[in-house]
Amino acid sequence: MARKVTVIGGGIVGLAVARSLVQRGAQVTVLEKEARWGAHQTGHNSNVVHAGLYYKPGSLKARMSVAGNRSMVEYAQANGVPVEVCGKLVVATSEAELPALEVLAQRAEANGVPAKMITQGQAREYEPEVAAVAALRVESTGIIDFPAVCAAIVRELETAGADLRLSTPALGIRTSERGTVEVATGGAIVRSDALVNCAGLHSDRVARMAGFSPKARIVPFRGEYYELRPDRSHLVKGLIYPVPDPTLPFLGVHLTRMLDGSVHAGPNAVLALRREGYRWGDLSVADLLETARFPGTWRLARKYAFPVGYEEVRRSLSKRRFAASLAKLVPAVGEDDLVRSGAGVRAQALLPDGSLVDDFLVEQGHRQVHVLNAPSPAATSALEIGNHLAELLFTTM
Ligand SMILES: Cc1cc2nc3c(=O)[nH]c(=O)nc-3n(C[C@H](O)[C@H](O)[C@H](O)COP(=O)(O)OP(=O)(O)OC[C@H]3O[C@@H](n4cnc5c(N)ncnc54)[C@H](O)[C@@H]3O)c2cc1C
């Protein structure tokens, strides 16, 4: 008889694991609390298919993003999802950034990512307005429509007869004496042989609901975007990224030409005041208390509050500062060229010692798999993560 599996979370990771499970013969139910698929991180991101150059060689992120870069592009092409492999530039804007750019070039090589160091003149052939003393050209980076990927997976799941439930939050989880996993949804109890938790910003809470005690807590980091005014979008031809700070898990504000020709600028990284807090006014006392009670929060604050966190908050509140960060990459970009766009909230796992979990983090128990850290590039890597989780789950059953 087919094994029954419940997947909690209908973002790109939950949908991808559901697809992998169906392909292995499982009977799958997906529970999503919102009224549409991909409503949170998946629907509020940069839509970049990352190449895999930033991540520690051998890490899950490195392996799955390099493979995911290929599988995601192939999936999109085969399923009528808009995608374009346009390549990108990582630019050193001063001599001081050159050693870090070299390190990145070596990392790209170690991860098997096609990338080459180019001169200022060569960089300007790709991006005439860029300020670069040198750049790393990465060919395999692309732009995509991740919500359209979700829609394609949903169509596949529907065809395969999966039970897909929107507006259905998982409110409680217990394992019966006979070993059946029971998920209370408010309306009904969903019974299955196994559970996969892909609840993104709520993944640690869902794990605790299932009787797990994950060490890591989710800390929500909001990333805000601006857009270049349409008459200024000619300033950016493709994707322009800064040399990242290796001590931080974020890539720094960048300029991304989207599939519709608009140019997005961002995201920055500020602590959100609720798990799904897309604006400064979105505040949850319960979420804040939970974050404040976790010892890792205070250790993180000691490390990053000043000057990194302080500067991020100032940039979030000041369009002039945001524009100044972008002008380091493209000096012609000014404050008046920017229009406020949306924001996304990253689910970033934090450990009690104050360190941010760098790699994807998956924990498994009897008939349960919990995805406890799946930040960028998890959308790029989703099909690989899906396969990995499906394999893991079957080893626990
Ligand atoms: C600003 C930003 C920019 C990014 N840029 C990129 C990029 O360019 N490329 C890239 O590869 N990655 C990028 N990422 C990362 C990427 O978006 C995420 O890694 C990916 O979307 C994670 O998918 P997910 O399915 O795990 O989470 P989500 O998309 O957040 O899905 C989790 C789902 O679980 C649901 N849920 C939660 N609790 C429950 C419950 N109790 N019951 C039922 N449902 C529940 C939520 O409603 C949500 O829909 C970015 C992220 C952000 C925030």
TrEMBL record:
FAD dependent oxidoreductase domain location: 4-392
One Pfam family of this chain: DAO
Keywords: FAD, Flavoprotein, Oxidoreductase
GO molecular function, a single term: (S)-2-hydroxyglutarate dehydrogenase activity
Keyword rRNA-binding attributed: no
Keyword Disulfide bond: no
Cofactor(s) required for function per UniProt: FAD
Organism superkingdom: Bacteria
A GO-annotated cellular component: cytoplasm
InterPro entries assigned: FAD-dep_OxRdtase, FAD/NAD-bd_sf
UniProt record similarity statement: Belongs to the L2HGDH family.
Protein name in the entry: L-2-hydroxyglutarate oxidase
Species this chain originates from: Actinokineospora terrae
